[in-house]
Amino acid sequence: MNKKYLDLLAEKYDSEEKVINELINLEAILNLPKGTEHFVSDLHGEFQSFQHVLRNGSGRVREKIVELFFSVLSEEKINELTTLVYYPEDKLQLIKHNFGNNEELHDWYAETIKHLVKLISFASSKYTRSKLRRALPKQFVYIIEELLYKTEDELLNKEPYYNIIVERVISLGQADKLIIGLAYCMQRLVVDHLHVVGDIYDRGPQPDKIMDTLIDYHSVDIQWGNHDVLWIGAFSGSKVCLANILRISARYDNLDIIEDVYGINLRPLLNLAEKYYTDNAAFRPKVQTGKKITDQERLQITKMHQAIAMIQFKLEMPIIKRRPFFNMSERLLLENIDYDKNEIKIQGKTYKLENTCFATVNPDNPERLIEEEQEVIDKLLFSVQHSEKLARHIHFLMKKGNLYLKYNGNLLIHGCIPLDEKGNMEEMVIEDTTYGGRDLLDIFEYHLRYAFAHPEETDDLSTDMVWYLWTGEYSSLFGKRAMTTFERYFIKDKETHKETKNPYYYLRENEDICRKILTDFGLDPDHSHIINGHTPVKEIEGENPIKANGKMIVIDGGFSKAYQSTTGIAGYTLLYNSYGMKLVAHKHFNSKENLLENGTDVLSVKRVVDEEVERKMVRETNVGQELLEEVAALKSLLEYRYMK
Ligand SMILES: O=P(O)(O)OC[C@H]1O[C@](O)(COP(=O)(O)O)[C@@H](O)[C@@H]1O
Ligand SMILES: [Mn+2]
């Protein structure tokens, strides 16, 4: 091993004793059961549902409570404890109202603290003490550790001592704080690591809150979805990506995310919209049920929606022309329009156009932005690139995100691996080099990172490639032949709205194909799975999220409210602990209020995806590999420095 490296290591481990202690510690960790991984995808701005899933650990919290207390606590008490762990602040408020006097409340506090400590002890049994310490509420670490670590003998001798600690906490008015801290600690203990398999942004109202939660989360990685990449693209200088995020925000009545949350001034866009557009049925926003919106607001959004959509359609054209290898010339739709007859020719067929809004289009040069449009998009880009909050969120996406991830033997990817009909890797030539499968994804990621690193470049290959990732035929995130946004606004015939999926989406039912993909990514096909998001699983129509004899798991059950009627459920999540994998189907996310009142959680149906024959240990995981490398280095250090 490199001497310089060992010298550096010796600075940290400057005595034989320290090296030996660390070696023992690492060896011990390697032999603990692997921590629980939690997979979610396609959150689409649905913060409320997302945070509920984090709070209940996809059912893990309740499972642990039931396991520990089923024979000693009533169902009612179990429900109370469960909701207390999910929403401690709110539940405490509700419970405290139920007591008539201080003694009753005091007893309840004492009993609840003991239950929670027991629960923490139970849920942390597979972690080291130092790991648990990091999860404990800082203010109470000492107290909780005193309560946690007691042997049978100590219990006999020290019972009064423990009781006194709890009594003091209560009489000093710290019980609420301690209970809240213990509840959050419990939430954290049931999940060791979170994977977000793409699509945090768009459609739903609070993607920013999801981002803030992820930034604070103890351990997370992200596999970018097509919608996330669109936001990264906008921040990195792609005007067409920017037009898209604004169009989608207008379409779902979410412009307040742009304006109020990210502080981007929409005034210039509104002025343009007021001048050139009027009401238009095809562009009225989809407003969430229960949300109030005035007629005037609706009209304003409808106008802005048209203004930004037209800017988007125009901006697509020069990119398609300067990048022939995108193979998108059929999307030069504004050139196929007969502006006098209001008709369009698509693949030899002529269609009538409805709800048109072409006031700014010059039929002789349809891709040309009028001056005001140019000014608007330039100002918007400036604003987006100078939003401090957006910068924080996009930097986090870049830091924790990748196009795909190999983790503990599984391949995590939002969309697909583009395949041809025979199941071969689809190939794409970029700058004279042919790429397919893993290589294609790697070059996509290279371009995305380059674009992000060069936000001042707006028309270069890398920035255009980010848009390709959103909408290109061989994009691993999109996975469809073409995006028919224009047709869905302006043509009635639904035939034209179809977006043909890449063969991957039917070939992935086939085990051999999945094995081939896993092998291409350097994974052992006997022991690995592909974990996918992106396409809502239509449980309602009997679609099975577990495909290819268990090799393929699709976890997009549709957190997105807008898609729940087509899926029939409210989302899938996946849990992978030392005993195997479980897919959880969430029937629906009860409102917090409902849950607090009635005390029961929404039933989560579980399916066992895979059961480990032997319990999986840290040694066999990604983290384990890193620890083994550390062990090797420390052993070398021991020989080199101390065993002479
Ligand atoms: O339902 P909407 O908002 O019109 O969006 C439809 C568009 O969204 C997409 O499905 C992409 O979004 P998803 O990644 O959520 O599937 C496009 O293929 C399609 O054109
Ligand atoms: Mn998607």
From TrEMBL:
The keyword Cytoplasm does not apply. Transmembrane segments: none annotated. It comes from the Bacteria. Keywords: Carbohydrate metabolism, Hydrolase, Manganese. Its EC number is 3.1.3.11. Pathway: Carbohydrate biosynthesis; gluconeogenesis. Gene3D superfamilies: 3.60.21.10. It catalyses: beta-D-fructose 1,6-bisphosphate + H2O = beta-D-fructose 6-phosphate + phosphate. One of its GO terms (molecular function) is fructose 1,6-bisphosphate 1-phosphatase activity. It holds the Pfam family FBPase_2. InterPro entries: FBPtase_class3 (IPR009164), Metallo-depent_PP-like (IPR029052). Its cofactor is Mn(2+). Belongs to the FBPase class 3 family. HAMAP family: FBPase_class3. This is Fructose-1,6-bisphosphatase class 3.
